[in-house]
Design brief:
This protein has one domain. A hairpin with a 6-residue loop joins strand 1 and strand 2. The longest helix is centred in the first third of the chain and has 53 residues. By secondary structure, the chain is mainly α. It contains eleven helices and six strands. The chain is globular.
């Protein structure tokens, strides 16, 4: 008696191969877990070793696996380690910023201001006192608000807010300009980046505080470097004379003054250069109506559209001056003083969920 056989095609062969490998994997798992048959509990090391072998072998017994999946699986522990270290080191970085800023302020009050009061004319003393304290208040206020203000997260419940995609990690709808932060383990509205010096994400509700802090800190460092330049040169020459024979006789207070000014000038000059570059970069992004994340996305989209003969237009670019007004929440000319030059905790423009796009309907095809 003969039996009709059906010649399987490529698709049927692939599925038979998949189920065959799956069965071999199941048999291997049973062999690796003899305690399930014999009724005894394994040791933790043997159980971990068996589980690791199954996980490793599963990479080769899945026909849907490609090299991207394999590399992501291999580097997943590295990503987890980096995210957790960044989260914990963020506390250390915040403490370091507070400690360095406090040390600079103490040296200014103990060394720089007394010299200014003794040697400068009255109008320059008044200017230093007013400008220095105004700058210090803005630095402290904006840094405190930047680290304590939440950048904003999309709502978890179902709403009628238009969304562009679903987050693969949060499994919640993502509005426009929203991105997932693996360090904070949540989606952030208008995410710019995760700043370890703030131990917080820079997003819609604290972007202004972050940029204002960078700007005022840079201005304060430049102010200290310029104001203490002559004192620094004097202190540097005095420190160089320590190694003469015989050495000059300086008191402990004078030595503290010399070393404090040297520390002050080197630290503030270095921070001024670093923050100057960072502030300039973010100023360019703000003028273009972009965030740091959108900068990379828009660059790729611009190259893609160039290959098909189209021009990319940023849908969130309202013009340079309008972009700055949106960031600072300025609507009237007087608010440049009350909301920019003076500390202000007013909310930003919009809710971070929906955005006004100044493009025409025919330009919406070029959005990101």
């Amino acid at each position: 008696m003969t039996r009709n056989t059906l010649k399987p095609g490529k698709e049927m062969n692939s599925w038979r191969c998949y189920f065959s490998k799956l069965m071999r994997l199941s048999v291997r798992w049973v062999r690796l877990c003899p305690w399930q048959v014999r009724g005894r509990r394994p040791g933790p090391l043997r159980q971990l070793w068996s589980y690791g072998k199954v996980v490793f072998n599963s990479l080769y017994f899945n026909i849907l696996t490609n090299w991207d999946t394999v590399l992501d699986s291999i580097f997943e522990p590295v990503y987890w380690l980096v995210d957790n270290l960044t989260r914990w080191f963020g506390v250390v970085f915040v403490c370091l910023v507070i400690a360095l800023t406090t040390s600079v302020v103490l040296i200014v009050y103990l060394c720089v201001l007394p010299r200014i009061v003794r040697t400068y004319p009255a109008h320059w003393i008044l200017w230093h006192l007013c400008y220095g304290h105004w700058n210090l208040v803005n630095i402290v206020f904006h840094y405190y608000k930047a680290i304590t203000t939440s950048p904003g997260c999309p709502p978890q419940e179902k709403t009628d807010i238009p969304t562009v995609t679903i987050c693969k990690k949060c499994i919640v709808p993502k509005p426009a300009r929203t991105h997932h932060c693996s360090i904070c383990n949540t989606c952030v509205l208008k995410m710019d980046h995760h700043c370890p010096w703030l131990n917080n994400c820079v997003g819609h509700f604290n972007h202004r505080y972050f940029f204002s802090f960078c700007l005022y800190m840079m201005m304060g460092c430049i102010y200290c470097s310029i104001s203490a330049k002559d004192m620094f040169l004097e202190a540097y020459n005095a420190i160089e004379s320590y190694y003469q024979t015989p050495p000059p006789q300086f008191t402990s207070e004078e030595k503290f003054f010399h070393k404090g000014l040297l520390y002050l000038w080197v630290l503030t000059s270095s921070v001024a250069v670093a923050l100057g570059g960072l502030s300039l970069w973010h100023a360019v992004l703000i003028t273009r109506g972009e965030t740091s994340v959108e900068r990379h996305i828009n660059r790729k989209e611009r190259k893609r559209l160039e290959t098909i003969g189209q021009v990319f237009r940023n849908p969130y670019h309202h013009g340079g001056i309008k972009n700055w007004k949106i960031l600072f929440g300025v609507e009237k000319k007087s608010q440049w003083i009350t909301r920019v030059l003076l500390p202000s905790s007013h909310p930003p423009h919009g809710d971070g969920l929906t955005w006004d796009c100044p493009l025409r309907k025919q330009d919406t095809m070029d959005t990101i």
